Amino acid sequence: MNDLSRQATRLDAIGGRYDKWLLGAAVALASLGVVMVASSSIELTSSPFYYLNRHLVFLGIGIGLAYWAMRTEFKTIEKYNQLLLLGCFVLLIVVFVPGIGSSVNGARRWVNLGVSKFQTVEAVKVLYIVWLASYLVRFRDEVNATWPAMLKPLGVAVALVGLLLLQPDFGSSTLLLGITAGMLVLGGVNMPRMSAPVVIGLPVFAFIAILEPYRMRRITSFLDPWADQLGSGYQLSNALMAVGRGEWFGVGLGASVQKLNYLPESHTDFIFSVIAEELGFFGVCLVIGLYALLVARAFWLGMKCVEMKRHFSGYIAFGIALWISMQTFVSIGVNLGILPTKGLTLPLISSGGSSVLMTCVAMGLLLRVSYELDRATQVSRIRSEAVAAEPVVDEPLPREAAGAVADALQSAARGGRGTSRMQPRVEPTFGRIA
To answer: Which residues have C-beta within 8 Å of that of residue 135, sequence separation ≥ 6?
Structure first.
């Protein structure tokens, strides 16, 4: 008993380590964001450091929230999964409440907190990913085998998208649907069954996209921004000129011309164009490389968690990786003129209070995934060593245990028929990443 007590105490005292590659990529992107927000916004107001100071305040608060997420046990978070889903709907509805919701350029996406405005969909992204991860854990086999279990999260996503389209926010709607589809696929959903909602939903979503005149103008201007360079194509044409001026090594930090009130939203949605102009092709490759490292590491953590049967942590990592990768792809694609304007910021780099805060929370959750994975790996190794060190005593099995073993062997010989109606699950794998 003393040996068992000492071993239990030893296991409880084990602490994990945070993934250094993930932390390094996040810190590098956030640091680059501070530099580029300062460079791209210095001429926008009479106070040259207004947007920089604001960005630093939100980044400081975001780091505090990330630290809180890093120190919170996932088993504590998982207990409140239904409240997280309720919070998603409350946050998207509260923007329509007079006196609380705030409208900017005809869109009702913000709540007024007094000192600042908060875009609620940024918090919804985090809450929804955590809820969907818990759902996939609770209904893992059913999602793979039955229609209702697969359609329930899709129905929730459609309901959230409906509220987003009322604001309207088409970019976040597309992102939320993409995250849902990706997490369902990685969660083991039956692929032929999953194709039916996709085939039906894509034409409907395309019709919604072209239903509003302003969305049609974005599409037509994206196809040929030079046709109406001073009108609907003004923002994209200036973004492309900024990218073209950068050439290989850029015009130099702080030397951008397009940020001088030529390129709208140069410190938020179109900050990547300023990076391309000032740091050139080399800087663009650096930014894309850092995002690739961040996303690849998140997927790697998710895969390792699934291999160790820590599915809740793994699905959270998958969800955040999907979110960051898709939002980054869309933001960069808009700046390079390969996608229509969507109004999505560049994670960890663009100025924007709501986005900065919730992306920091997401990074904190990813670091918590790495911490708990490392701790579980150490515990598993210690237990394996303890079992290997124990002497093997060859004792006859009790009659009841022997009968149970015999029944199990007979069942295995029959191929396990009759034990379950669920289809065998196929867990996600991405190859072996060192």
So the answer is: 81, 152, 153
Alpha carbon distance 33, 286 (integer Å): 13
Cβ neighbours of residue 373 closer than 8 Å, sequence gap 6 or more: 16, 301, 304, 305, 308, 310, 313
pLDDT tens digits, one per residue of 298-347: 999 999 999 999 999 999 999 999 999 999 999 999 999 888 877 789 99
Calculate ∠ Cα 148-149-152, nearest 5°.
Answer: 80
**Gyration radius of the chain's alpha carbons:** 25
Distance from C-alpha of 25 to C-alpha of 300, rounded to nearest angstrom: 14
Residues 37, 51: contact at Cβ < 8 Å? yes
Q: Please list the alpha-helical segments (H only) found in 94-190.
A: 120-138, 140-145, 147-166, 170-186
- What is the 8-class DSSP label of residue 115? S
For residue 368, give the nearest of 323, 317, 321, 319 by alpha carbon.
317
> 124 and 115 in contact (C-beta within 8 Å)?
no
Give kind and range of the element (H or E) at residue 104. Answer: strand 101-104
On the 0-12 / 13-18 / 19+ scale of CB atoms within 10 A, 308 is middle
The closest of 68, 82, 185 to 134, measured between CA atoms, is: 82
pTM of the complete model: 0.86
